[in-house]
Amino acid sequence: MSYNSSLLVTETPREEISSTPGRESSISVASITRQRRFKSARLIGEYEKPWIEDWKKGKKGKRLSGRAWDSVIFWTSIFLGFAIGALMCYLSFTKVSNFEYCLVFEDNFEKIDPDIWGYEIQRGGFGSGSFEWTTSDPRNAYTDAEGLHIIPTLTVDDTDITPAEILDGYTLNLTTMGTCTSSDVHASCSIYSNQTSGDIINPVRSARLTTKGKKTIKYGRVEVVAKMPRGDWLWPAIWMMPEDSVYGDWPASGEIDLAESRGNNGDDYAAVGGRDSLISAMHWGPIASVDAFWRTDGKHNVRRTDYSNQYNTFGLEWSEKYIFTYINSRLLQVFFVSFADGNKNMWDRGHFGQDIVNNSALHDPWSQTGAPNTPFDQPFYLILNVAVGGTNGFFPDQIANKPWGDKSLSAQREFWNASGIWYPTWGNGTTRGLNVKSAKMWSQGACGSPS
């Protein structure tokens, strides 16, 4: 119901209306003898405002009222909060290590510089059971105006090996070809495809570039600006390995993963993360079966996008006291490990003294150094690569219609037989590759000082 303030309300004697039939309809404006106007309910005139008087009393040095004390306590608390927060920030800032660094190399990939990069060429899966055959072919690694591209391709597209020979009757011998860089000649340099045994020629070729023997650091920083590939079962990685296996075979001498991802669609591979997920880790353990990477790893997921859509900076900061990886800024850390926590060494951190493997206790390869960060106290080199598939569990079984089983004796054949499903997801051009704009490496300390 609406109210119109312009209407006039009339009052007619009650007895006059009731005594005259039809009187209601004959009342006119002229018969109005009195009108009632709207009257505000607001307080009119002076009224008490005791809080003002209390404030005046407080200002004159007299006793403060409850309201005045509330104001004093509130603003004092605000001031103390800011002061304590500023002090905490300052103290935390002073504890942050601010090392001096010396640039070891900076590469914007106008070419693949042989003074910085070398190729690792083999077909044995590099310990992870991956299915690619790595090459130095310009089809698999090249540079252009956008930088470096590491591109996986089908073997049948880039060689004279036929689809039938992939499966049976062909011998691939990288040693004879003079290209194999692995010391494991039998497992990593040659293969004979055989229908009966299930062995096949690696169906995919890719590339693996490293700074081994050329550029290393023991403590320092690394930053790689890169865009990840898109395609099922692609496995891009930016990582580091020790120049010398001082403490024994992998993972006893350590491994540092700055950035790994999976090329699968994030929605299809949501259980463990696809190309919307970025993984960093340290691998370490006295033997491979007790690799304790799960104690020192991290993952960062993005929403409504993925790591194949744009370039990101993948970084590492490493000192004698700590190690961490980050994305774009040191503030966005993927994992952080302190070596100064309670002076606990890596053997104790991994609880390896409690492990029994094949009915035997494990050997401690690190504690004799007395350093809490061993094995991460040696020079490491940088690796850029794109692997394909694998049987080490990085692509877990029974997720996203994975077309092979890790324990299958013919896993690579099962993978290749499903190429009609996964190959169309790779797309064309550089979208299927690891695309790198730049790579930088700094050693800790001033240039010319001992590491």
Automatic annotation (TrEMBL):
Organism superkingdom: Eukaryota
Gene Ontology molecular-function annotations: hydrolase activity, hydrolyzing O-glycosyl compounds
A Pfam family annotated for this UniProt entry: Glyco_hydro_16
Keywords: Membrane, Transmembrane, Transmembrane helix
Segments traversing the membrane: 72-93
InterPro entries to which the protein is assigned, alphabetical: Beta-glucanase-like, ConA-like_dom_sf, Glycosyl_Hydrlase_16
Biological processes annotated in GO: carbohydrate metabolic process
Region (Disordered): 1-23
Chain ranges of the GH16 domain: 91-444
Keyword DNA repair assigned: no
Entry keyword annotation includes Signal: no
Family the UniProt entry places it in: Belongs to the glycosyl hydrolase 16 family.
Name of the featured protein: Related to beta-1,3-glucan binding protein
